[in-house]
Amino acid sequence: MTGKDIIKITFTLVVFYLIGGFILAFVYAKTSPQIYKNAEEAEKKALKQLMPDADDISKLGEWEPHGKKAKYFVAKKAGETIGYVVQSFGKGYSSFINVLIAVDKDFKVQKITILAHAETPGLGDEIDTDWFKNQFKDKDLEHLKVVKTDTKEYIQAISGATISSRAVTEDAVKNGVAFLIKTIKEGGKTDVEPRHN
What we know:
alpha+beta, 2 domains, 7 strands, two-stranded parallel ribbon, single chain, five-stranded antiparallel beta sheet
């Protein structure tokens, strides 16, 4: 192989990679706004499912559980605050679990939804079942604790998936509720107006 051949191959590879890069940039530029719009629509839908009685759910701000950007919202009906929604993350067995938590004005959990996770199929992924999520209804900060036995007072762990159960309950949900209490209730604000970031 001569020096000329090496230069020719190198030139061909550079051209190939440049064309590929331009194609990727073009596709990204065309699809990125739609991806963002779809994510916003999915968020709105999830918020409405968590707070179906609200006629307005507005972003209050952001916080960073586990260094991940998360949002929190106020839910209103006819101008009156009826509760809050906070996004939180819990460190699971094989992933960070992305959770949305809805609470009433007394900061009791009303509903949770799992937005994303990569927990073990057949074990940790049971966190996304109605059986597990429905246990959170009306739990306050003191009762967000995982136990391995039958319970109505606390949260019963998923058999074989205690780490995932704790990640949702004692990490994501408990920390999210504690954050709301500290930020809204203990901040001395009875009715927080939305801040647009």
